[in-house]
Design goal:
- By secondary structure, the chain is mainly α.
- It has one domain.
- The longest helix is centred in the first third of the chain and has 47 residues.
- It contains 7 helices and no strands.
């Protein structure tokens, strides 16, 4: 009995994983940095929470808008390329056949076999063959603006909520240390998980994300401290 060949590839999760990781990372870093900066300026706990809450809402909307516009631009480009390819298939099918065969020759097929493969694929689905092998657009890589926007906004809000909640429950005197420490731990975990899912080294992913998070929080807290002293 033949054994089924099962493989798990990560390419199908690249789109949503990128949006989720970017959103959560930004939520933690920006909100924790904002909280630390305001706290370092000797602000009251109420003002810290107000600033953090405003940062959560503004950041989530900014992430959603930015991701939507960016991915929609990609979708527009893909749509234009598809229309162009359909027109070329109508006007010059023979030329498109030669073009597709040439792609397969570059990938290692003999010219004769490449012509046969191109002919069979175009007979089955000419547009699909050219979209996939000439343009490089597949179902897993196609742009999905709304999905990316929602994923970014939701993940940002979840990430931002953590330092905000810690700020609400921790005594004012221990707020800076608690927020900074918890944010670094979360960033390290997030970086490690994202790297693991993507097939990279979890340790490197953790260190990379934690380093930039620590740098952002340190700089923001320093600015807040300077402002507080000046005032």
């Amino acid at each position: 009995m033949a054994r089924r060949h099962l493989e798990h590839h990560r390419t199908g999760s690249i789109g949503w994983l990128r949006a989720v990781v970017l959103g959560a990372n930004d939520g933690i870093v920006s909100t924790a940095s904002l909280v630390l900066g305001v706290a370092a300026s000797n602000a009251t706990k109420e003002n810290i929470l107000i600033a953090g809450g405003a940062g959560l809402v503004a950041g989530a909307m900014s992430m959603a808008a930015g991701e939507y516009v960016s991915v929609y631009s990609q979708a527009d480009t893909e749509k234009a390329e598809l229309e162009k390819e359909r027109e070329e298939l109508k006007l010059d099918p023979e030329g498109e056949h030669r073009e597709l065969a040439g792609i397969y020759v570059k990938r290692g097929l003999t010219p004769e076999l490449a012509k046969q493969v191109a002919q069979q694929l175009m007979s089955f689905d000419a547009e699909g063959a050219h979209v996939r092998d000439e343009l490089g657009i597949t179902e897993t890589s196609a742009a999905r603006p709304l999905q990316a926007a929602l994923a970014s906004a939701a993940s940002f809000a979840v990430g931002a909520a953590v330092p905000l909640l810690i700020s609400a429950v921790i005594p004012h005197g221990a707020l800076i240390v608690s927020v900074a420490a918890s944010a670094l731990v979360l960033l390290a975990v997030l970086g490690g998980v994202a790297a693991k899912v993507g097939g990279a080294s979890p340790v490197r992913g953790s260190l990379r994300v934690a380093f930039w998070g620590a740098l952002a929080m340190g700089l923001t807290a320093g600015v807040g401290k300077l402002v507080g002293v000046a005032v």
